[in-house]
Amino acid sequence: KSEGRGARQSVFTFAFRGRLSSRWPLLPFFFCFSCEAMGQGLSFDLTQEEIEDLQKGCNFKFSQTDIQVLYKRFLKLDKDKKGFISNEEFLSIPEFKLNPLAQRLVTIFENVNFKDFLHLLSAFSPKAAKEDKLKFMFNFHDVDGDGYISRLDLEHIMRQRVGASLNESEMDKILSKVLEESGSKQERLDFQSFSKCFVEHEDFSLDVDIPSDNDDM
């Protein structure tokens, strides 16, 4: 929210929230970050044609106003104006850096241009289909990107969440339970098997909070 207008201070808030309740034992998860930026408004603007193209590219999951606000925040994160957000820039945000899953999240979002950034965020839009949200979560857990969530993928995510608080035996029991409850018979899940872990009536949400453009005034 905007503060100190006389000093031309712009407070930049950008938060991701995801919450899942299901038979998938590794969830729920939550991640959020915000940062403050000093200075006047940005002079880099998208043209109307670019905004319309970006809106089509994300299947109209964001309004034109949303896209403009997200673009301004993207530019503020891209401090060196490279056209993408680096690993270091993501991890420089205190709230993000403290998240145990920060490194995995950075791997997904780092070094993407704004069009790809918007595409990734579209899974968090209220207009996104449940399948879009599940695909994001599946890709989040598919650490090696081979199209399957394997035991090693799950262990990687779990280690980021709990660190060294579990010994090998405890970790093995948890992973075995996860795979057993998900119905896996080959110690790995494809997208279809992963989706079956989430039944239709369950509470399921991934959201991105997009502040008003007035917050940058």
Helix/strand-derived category reads mainly alpha
What fraction, in percent, of the residue positions are helical?
40-55%
- Uncertain parts: 1-22, 27-43
Mean pLDDT metric: 74
What general outline do the C-alpha atoms trace? globular
**How much β-strand is present in the residues?**
5-15%
Within the largest sheet, what's the order of strands? 1-3
CA distance, first residue to last residue: 10 Å
Query: What is the strand tally?
Result: 6
- Biggest pleated sheet: 2 strands, antiparallel
Q: Give helix and strand order, one letter per element, not per position.
A: EEEHHHHHHHEHHEHE
Radius of gyration: 19 Å
Count of helices?
Answer: 10
